[in-house]
């Protein structure tokens, strides 16, 4: 159905894609452990507890994409799939207004015209929506960025609905993961998906004063994989978010790990009125 | 959800359902993800009909994408910020409760959570003339306390009665009753919940109850605590912003729950002839 349409468009699409290929490379170099930025067709996971800046980072990336080239943006389209109804349009607009040199309604609306939002309230609806969105990817060659916030929203509901069988519990998310991989490869997109740290890592009981409790700084300390294997397999980059809990600092940090090469990089950032701002020092 | 049955959508007759089931296609997902040419051959159904069926099912069950510019237009006309009636709390909330969001108040017993809810209800019903749905699961709401708060705002008995009428109270002592009450709500509302504090087992740190799965849901969280220091009078409380989509966290304000609800404390009434 869509493949015939696809072939007929391949000439102009190819040009758009070649152009697009270079345009997403600079989306946010700080996020990547390897020297190279995401290749179109990559899947990246943002993982971390709540309040650590994952959604803010998504707004930052979205703004980067939808702003016009004259304002330092990439002028590409973004599709944002919201599964927990957290998306805050007013916050996105505030970030855009702060980043534009002249923030008039017209320009803001033109940027927002490159942004698409879908709400999904169950994993089955997510899967069916991905199927119907395939037509949209066909028709929008400048749609380069796909965001899912968050992929773990239905975890407990799926577990209940699947009864005793783990296969049944995971089957819809497994299909979603496989279909996302297919979409991302076929339409040369980049996918950013967030997952919440809803599982507690069983920490060893520590006796003694709380000051002896050192902050873990390595990647993966609070990471217990709980989503299905199919998802673990399609992720290329995993980025862990955390926040320094001490009262004096409002700093966030992220550790980016490229899963194949195992390169790790740590960065710090703060969140201001205009969104995420990376601190210049790097560890 | 998702089982194919006759009448689920136009074109899905009992015969079609049986034929599909015979080939292992039972759910909407099965049909949408199947290779329709293969299915057409195996089931003896027309390929065109199956393609049409797939399109109808997708249109019916998938979510529809909104364009950002349209969404923004709609939001500009429908969002409101409701003042809580407590100046210091409004500061923490960046002017008040935002419609379309969930704000959570956490605190130990006696920290003033129910007081805050009553005060907000009184302010919204009287000062802003809006309807309030108050779902009470702790039994902390009394009509007399609400009336007291309203009496402190206005001596006019008709106004007090009018405000009380705008507050609808639902008692829900289990989660199912609460979900029922929420299902009936349709319009855009600002939602505010209270939550209790528990001590974390391992480190002894205080943390909000209901665990990690709930903690992601509210966009804003305020912690109420009894004031420190020997000099703190019984009605002093500190409110600390611990989660917010708009303001940096860690801000604290002192609120005096003894004087809540008085005219002095409510900025919404200043310059507003009601």
UniProtKB/TrEMBL annotation, chain A:
Coiled coil: none
Record organism: Equus przewalskii
PANTHER family named among the record's database cross-references: DNA REPAIR PROTEIN XRCC2
Protein name: DNA repair protein XRCC2
Residue ranges of every copy of the RecA family profile domain listed in the record: 16-197
From TrEMBL, chain B:
Residue ranges annotated for the RecA family profile domain, each copy included: 78-185
Annotated compartments: Nucleus
Keywords linked to the UniProt accession: ATP-binding, DNA damage, DNA recombination, DNA repair, DNA-binding, Nucleotide-binding, Nucleus
Keyword Ion transport found: no
Keyword Mitochondrion: no
Entries under InterPro entries matching the protein: HRR_RAD51_Paralog (IPR051988), P-loop_NTPase (IPR027417), Rad51_C (IPR013632), Rad51D_C (IPR047323), RAD51D_N (IPR048943), RecA_ATP-bd (IPR020588)
Domain of life: Eukaryota
Family: Belongs to the RecA family. RAD51 subfamily.
Name the record gives this protein: DNA repair protein RAD51 homolog 4 isoform X3
Gene coding for it: RAD51D
């Amino acid at each position: 159905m869509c493949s015939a349409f696809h072939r007929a468009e391949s000439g102009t699409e190819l040009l758009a894609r070649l152009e697009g290929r270079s345009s997403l490379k600079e989306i946010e170099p700080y996020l990547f452990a390897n020297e190279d930025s995401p290749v179109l067709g990559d899947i990246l996971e943002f993982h971390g507890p709540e309040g650590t800046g994952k959604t803010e980072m998504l707004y930052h990336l979205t703004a980067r994409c939808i702003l016009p080239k004259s304002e330092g943006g990439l002028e590409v389209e973004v599709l944002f799939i919201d599964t927990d109804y957290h998306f805050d349009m007013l916050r996105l607009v505030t970030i855009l207004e702060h980043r534009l040199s002249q923030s008039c309604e017209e320009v803001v609306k033109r940027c927002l015209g490159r942004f698409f939002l879908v709400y999904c309230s169950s994993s089955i609806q997510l899967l069916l929506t991905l199927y119907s969105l395939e037509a949209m990817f066909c028709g929008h060659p400048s749609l380069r960025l796909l965001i899912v916030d968050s992929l773990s929203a239905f975890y407990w509901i799926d577990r209940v609905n699947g009864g005793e069988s783990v296969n049944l519990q995971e089957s819809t998310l497994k299909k979603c993961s496989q279909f996302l991989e297919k979409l991302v490869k076929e339409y040369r997109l980049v996918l950013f998906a967030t997952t919440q740290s809803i599982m507690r890592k069983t920490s060893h009981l520590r006796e003694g004063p709380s000051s002896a409790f050192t902050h873990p700084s390595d990647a993966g300390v609070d990471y217990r994989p709980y989503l299905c294997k199919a998802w673990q397999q399609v992720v290329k980059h995993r980025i862990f978010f955390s926040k320094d809990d001490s009262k004096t600092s409002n700093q966030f940090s992220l550790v980016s790990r490229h899963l194949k090469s195992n390169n790790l990089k740590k960065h710090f950032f703060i969140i201001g009125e205009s969104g995420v701002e990376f601190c210049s020092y790097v560890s | 959800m998702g089982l194919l049955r006759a009448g689920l959508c136009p074109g899905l007759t009992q015969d079609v359902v049986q034929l599909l089931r015979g080939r292992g296609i039972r759910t909407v997902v099965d049909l949408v993800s199947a290779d329709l040419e293969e299915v057409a051959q195996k089931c003896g159904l027309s390929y065109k009909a199956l393609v049409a069926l797939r399109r109808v099912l997708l249109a019916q069950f998938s979510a529809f994408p909104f364009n950002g510019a349209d969404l923004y237009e709609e939001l500009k006309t429908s969002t409101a910020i409701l003042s809580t009636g407590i100046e210091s709390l409004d500061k923490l909330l960046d002017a008040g409760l935002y419609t379309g969001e969930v704000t959570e108040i956490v605190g130990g017993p006696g920290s003033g959570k129910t007081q805050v809810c009553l005060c907000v209800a009184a302010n919204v019903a009287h000062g802003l003339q809006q309807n309030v749905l108050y779902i009470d699961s702790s039994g902390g709401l009394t009509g007399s306390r609400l009336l007291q708060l309203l009496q402190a705002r206005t001596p006019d008995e008709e106004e007090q009665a009018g405000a009380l009428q705008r507050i609808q109270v639902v008692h829900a002592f289990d989660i199912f009753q609460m979900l029922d009450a929420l299902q009936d709500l349709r319009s855009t509302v600002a939602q505010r919940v209270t939550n209790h504090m528990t001590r974390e087992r391992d480190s002894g740190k205080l943390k909000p109850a209901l665990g990690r799965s709930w903690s992601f849901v509210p966009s804003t969280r305020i912690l109420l605590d009894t004031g420190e220091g020997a000099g703190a009078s019984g009605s002093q409380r500190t409110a600390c912003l611990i989660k917010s989509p708009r303001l940096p966290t860690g801000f604290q304000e002192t609120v005096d729950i003894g004087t809540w609800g008085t005219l002095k404390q409510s900025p919404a009434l200043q310059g507003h002839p009601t």
